[in-house]
Design a protein that fits this description.
Number of helices: 1
Distance between the termini: 52 Å
Radius of gyration: 16 Å
Order of helices and strands: H
Strand content: under 5%
Helix content: over 70%
Keywords: Membrane, Transmembrane, Transmembrane helix
Length: about 40
């Protein structure tokens, strides 16, 4: 399975990475906001 990746696969991987980064960022923001409220 060492064929070059298709554009669709690259797009899927990139989208997954971006989504996970956004989720982690939001969790950090929520955690900081929660801690500052307490």
């Amino acid at each position: 399975m060492d064929r070059p990746m298709t554009l669709k696969e690259i797009a899927k991987i990139t989208a997954g990475a971006v989504v996970s980064l956004v989720i982690v960022g939001w969790l950090m923001v929520l955690a900081i906001a929660f801690l500052t409220v307490l």
